[in-house]
Prior knowledge:
The chain has helices at residues 2-39, 43-76, 80-85, 90-99, 108-120, 125-138, 140-149, 154-178, 199-230, 233-240, 243-257, 264-270, 276-285, 291-301, 303-328. It is an all-alpha fold. The model is unreliable at 188-195 (pLDDT under 50).
Amino acid sequence: MADGIRLGLRALVSTVLGGAALIAIVTVASVLGPMLALDLYTPPVAAWWTVFTAITVQAVPFLLLGTVVSAAIGAFVPQRVFQRLLPRRTALAVPVAGAAGVVLPGCECASVPVAGSLMRRGVAPAAALAFLLSAPAINPVVLVATSIAFPGQPEMVLGRLAASLGTAVVMGWLWARFGREEWLRPAKRDTAHGPEGGPRAFASGLQHDFLHAGGFLVVGAAAAATFAIVVPSSLLEVFTGSAWLSVLLLAVLAVVLCVCSEADAFVAASLSGFSPTARLAFMVVGPMVDLKLIALQTGTFGRSFALRFSSATWLVAVASSALVGWWLL
Length: 329
């Protein structure tokens, strides 16, 4: 027990130091990058560094907090808690499971094995899938990060909560009504996060989630900065001039960039040329449908399920974002 606690503390300290080091490296790079760019007479490179640094430095603390909370939930909260809290009727269990994402945060990577574990322990697949979609999208860390990324715009936080929760609940009900058992391959025991629970599981989950999500954050920030600098404004006007095209473009971009949900609000905020509804779609779609999630769902539940579920989720998320954006933003 003592060894496990020491291991958990060591992993926590290492992750905190790693996050601080990442911030320090990016900060130094933000100073040297523009200087080098100016020496080379390439102001666009200086602008790229500015956008990239702003997104990364703002997002890292929330990414770190989110992965710590997610690892703690996965390691120390017994799965039977969900069974006791969920109603027996599937129609009622779906919204309860979706709302549980508000108080039980989890990253996208952890949500898929957690959903599989819930199904193995007798939770209705529709309820488990609703939790899979809501946990990384509406947890407290994500909502606080969204409020920081969009200061003075509480409607963006409320819009993200309403559209994401609505998508999760609708998809749960759709699966309960139209889902077929043969589409959902029985979930296998997941060993990607190490032991079932305890300090060792916390340490393993924390290291995995932070390194994995941190890599996608850097890639996403770099892609967003490149998008902002390289794409000509004349091309953006084609999309930003149309409300529907701008929503569809950012919904597709969210699938490709694979930005962690604890950090995607900062990327969305940097896309200032797009409408609030389009940026809302980026934040709603990303935590529910992206390339890494499709791969995880394929490996856990089978390709037949992943293709159908991801496609339907994308459509519902875009529609939910458009409706909430039209109503609220």
